[in-house]
């Protein structure tokens, strides 16, 4: 980015949103979710240097919202990704933590906890993992 020269071209007309990581090492793109596609992986992290897709995820909300779901630290050593609930809701309920540009598998997963009504009236609420 700093040189203003084109070094990479992502030729995908379906991309609706795009952002660069803080140090311009990664590009995050998102296409509109299509439930009729076999893979449904519409949120991608690319290497800005090689153009290689490093990881792909499913994002069912709007492509614009997807850019808020992946956040890098300024030095890009940590990447946080909000993960939508696997069940019937589109709302995120956990955070995946990736380290040092390795998107093969999260280093840590932080799972949300919710309170539910106690099975017996009058008992304190029960906290469950999502």
How does the SSE layout of this entry go?
Blueprint: E1 15-20, E2 26-31, E3 43-47, E4 53-57, H1 63-66, E5 70-72, E6 78-84, E7 92-99, E8 108-111, E9 113-116, E10 126-129
Antiparallel strand pairs: 1-2, 2-3, 3-4, 5-6, 6-7, 7-8, 9-10
Low-pLDDT sequence parts = none
What does the radius of gyration come to?
Answer: 18 Å
Biggest pleated sheet: 4 strands, antiparallel
Query: Which structural class should the secondary elements be placed in?
Result: mainly beta
Strand content: 35-45%
Cα shape: elongated
- Note the gap between the termini: 40 Å
Helix content percent band: under 10%
Widest beta sheet: strand line-up = 1-2-3-4
Q: H/E order of the elements?
A: EEEEHEEEEEE
Please state the average pLDDT score.
84
Q: What's the number of extended β-strand segments?
A: 10
In total, the number of domains comes to: 1
- Helical segment count: 1
Explain this structure to me?
The protein has 130 residues and is mainly beta. It is built from 1 helix and 10 strands, in the order ββββαββββββ. β7 and β8 form a beta hairpin. It has one domain. The chain has a 4-stranded antiparallel β-sheet. The termini are far apart. The chain is elongated.
């Amino acid at each position: 980015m700093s040189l203003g020269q084109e070094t990479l071209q992502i030729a995908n007309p379906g991309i609706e949103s795009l952002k660069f990581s803080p140090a311009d090492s990664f590009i995050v793109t998102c296409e509109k979710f299509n439930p009729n596609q076999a893979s449904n992986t519409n949120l991608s992290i690319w290497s800005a240097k090689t153009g290689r897709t490093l990881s792909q995820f499913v994002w069912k909300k709007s492509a614009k919202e997807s850019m808020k779901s992946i956040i890098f630290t300024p030095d890009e050593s940590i990447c946080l990704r909000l993960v939508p609930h696997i069940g019937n809701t589109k709302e995120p309920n956990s955070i995946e933590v990736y380290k040092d540009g390795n998107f093969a598998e999260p280093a840590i997963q932080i799972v949300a906890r919710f309170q539910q009504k106690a099975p017996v009236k009058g008992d304190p609420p029960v906290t469950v993992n999502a």
